[in-house]
Amino acid sequence: MTSQISIERLMASVHELGAIGALDGGGVCRLALTDADKAGRDWFVKSLHALNCEVFIDAIGNIWGIRAGRTEGAPVMIGSHIDTVATGGLYDGALGVLAGLEVIAALNASETETDLPVAVAAFTNEEGARFAPDMMGSGVHQGALDLDEMLSTRATSGDALVGEELRRIDYAGQDLPIIPSAYLELHIEQGPVLEAEGLKIGAVTGVQGIHWTEFTLRGQTNHAGTTPMLLRRDAGQVGFAIARLADEMAQELGEPQVATVGVFEVSPCLVNVVPDRARLTVDMRNTDGDILRSATDRLLSQAQQFAEAAGCTLDIRPLARFAPVVFDDALVTRVETAAQNRQLPVKRMPSGAGHDAQMFAPNCPTAMIFVPSHKGLSHNINEHTDTTYIEAGAQVLLDVVLDLTGGLK
Ligand code: GLV
Ligand code: MN
Ligand code: MN
Question: What's the rounded Cα separation, in Å, for the pair 364 and 382?
Fold first, then answer.
């Protein structure tokens, strides 16, 4: 019997996991290290045990299961994340982890033995929505981020530390990280390209660089009616100037530069009071690391000038600094070939979103498989990918795993 994905089994697990942290209007909220994330983790661990995998948890709470191979070699790892943003859909991250479980289920069902073991992983806090930076678990696992520094990271809401939350939900493990023989991740594209071009599979060539920065401004509250414009120390107006500049720079630089102000708070947030405090975040990305670095440098130095001109103080906190990553060309070709062998229209493309795969790329051959996102929507409760594309992507994943592990009946 050849190994075949069961789309019915895979979609059943998409809906089972999707019920954990489900939002009333659709979609899910499983912010990292919350009770909903814990419930998702418990479900994942139970699923790994049901597939006869040995389960491991490391000090940053990454979970992985291993299906033994005929040899003791380093496993081929399939990974992604089950944490979500607060307005998450059913597929961002979850699909990669669930497709990994489905690969193991398919290998078990066909009694296929592989030379190399196969691992399936769910990494802690890929989203970075509750604790910055993103890709925290995979970054620590692969040595790009410092464990102690990450454990002492405070939530953006200020209410908790990563290490405390890991202990609270009982996922502060002790197993040692591993470097797999290869790393694969199936993910929804989260953009509009594949659907617009009528393609079913993206063979991902790499991930663009990501810079996140938090700006905190302090000025002085004062009366909105009596304080002349030139005498104000208006933290809100400086925040707006920084936000506007980020947007203008992205327009000026053109594609693929993007800039997003996802957090913007002013206080005391009253109609007739000049704000004395503003806090905003800027997310800037580009596939060209040099352009991204110089854009960030310019934003930071102009922000300082805006603050000084308005008599405000400015604290700048870099939340994430990830350079662009190029995936292993030979492995990308294997993904492309696996798609072509199944007559699935495929193209090579870079990723706009950050992924756990980028943390593995410096240490082992790494590649990703994208499937189309309807209308390019993601980080949105209406995120949707057709079942036929999910089946296609999971089957390509299984085919590449068999190719890499020497899967034999
Ligand atoms: C993760 O989803 C990111 O790219 O921000
Ligand atoms: Mn993701
Ligand atoms: Mn995401």
Answer: 34
What per-residue confidence (pLDDT) applies to 408? 54
**Within a 10 A sphere around the Cβ of 378, how many other Cβ atoms?**
23
Name the residue among 341, 396, 344 with its Cα closest to residue 368: 396
Biggest CA pair distance of the chain: 82
**Tokens 């990918």, located at residue:** 385
What does the alpha-carbon distance between residue 196 and residue 372 come to, in Å, rounded to a whole number?
9
Whether the CB of 283 sits within 6 Å of ligand 1: no
Which pTM does this prediction carry? 0.94
Residue 239 near residue 278 (C-beta atoms within 8 A): yes
Contacts of 296 (CB under 8 A, 6+ apart): 211, 213, 284
pLDDT digits (tens, 9 = 90+) for 220-256: 999 999 999 999 999 999 999 999 999 999 999 999 9
Q: Is 356 in the pocket of ligand 1 (CB under 6 A)?
A: no
CA distance 137 to 241: 34
**Cα separation, 163 vs 156, whole angstroms:** 15
Ligand 3 centroid–CA 262 distance in Å is 14
Number of helices and strands (H, E) in the chain? 12, 15
Q: Closest Cα partner for 74 from 177, 217, 188?
A: 177
Cβ neighbourhood burial of 158 (10 Å; 0-12, 13-18, 19+): exposed
8 A C-beta contact, residue 184 and residue 330: no
Q: How far is the CA of 85 from the centre of ligand 3 (A)?
A: 7
